Recover the amino acids of this structure.
């Protein structure tokens, strides 16, 4: 990285360089053409775009731009903490601690005001106490379900995921959008009918 006498700009550039690593963090989800696994940067871009396209389905008024910003930065912590598969119960045992440490280091690369802003936005997303955060979670949970449906079962089949496991994600989607939760229920039923998803354990 080129030296810079402006300490604020240097810190911002350091953060920008560091988050390029998000492109190397692979998720379990396949791309919709099933050619390979998606990475975290692709996932973040996809759901941020969903925020603008689907904002009208939020149960409460939301700021689509703010939701998108939340979604663009929420997985930055996975540079250090890694991606934890949603159905990996053991992996979730220490997920919060890993991500807290990652947030402190990664957002801490920024100037103090921006570090505080992104940390607060990440914490808001995690806590789901605002309409923006609840809708952001709805999209974050919906997107991999869409991917698995479009890939004929994708990693559902690979990991032997059952319909009841996917249905456990519905409250998170419903927390921000009943309409999207209803759509997801229908999608799960259709996935079972097509053999993409095992009915029950």
């Amino acid at each position: 990285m080129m030296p810079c006498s402006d300490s604020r700009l240097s810190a911002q550039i350091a953060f920008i360089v560091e988050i390029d690593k998000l492109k190397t963090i692979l998720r379990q989800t396949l791309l919709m053409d099933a050619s390979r696994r998606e990475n975290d940067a692709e996932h973040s871009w996809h759901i941020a775009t969903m925020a603008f396209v689907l904002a009208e389905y939020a149960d409460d008024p939301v700021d689509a731009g703010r939701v998108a910003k939340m979604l663009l930065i929420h997985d930055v912590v996975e540079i250090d903490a890694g991606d934890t598969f949603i159905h990996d119960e053991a992996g979730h045992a220490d997920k919060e601690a890993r991500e807290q440490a990652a947030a402190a280091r990664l957002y801490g690369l920024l100037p103090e005001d921006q570090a505080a802003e992104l940390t607060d936005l990440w914490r808001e997303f995690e806590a789901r106490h605002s309409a923006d955060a609840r809708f952001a979670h709805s999209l974050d949970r919906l997107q991999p379900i869409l991917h698995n449906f479009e890939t004929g079962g994708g990693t559902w089949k690979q990991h032997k995921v059952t319909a009841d496991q996917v249905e456990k994600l519905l409250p998170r989607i419903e927390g921000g959008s009943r309409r999207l939760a209803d759509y997801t229920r229908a999608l799960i039923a259709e996935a079972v009918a097509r053999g993409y998803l095992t009915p029950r354990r």
Q: What stands out?
A: The first helix runs from residue 7 to 19.
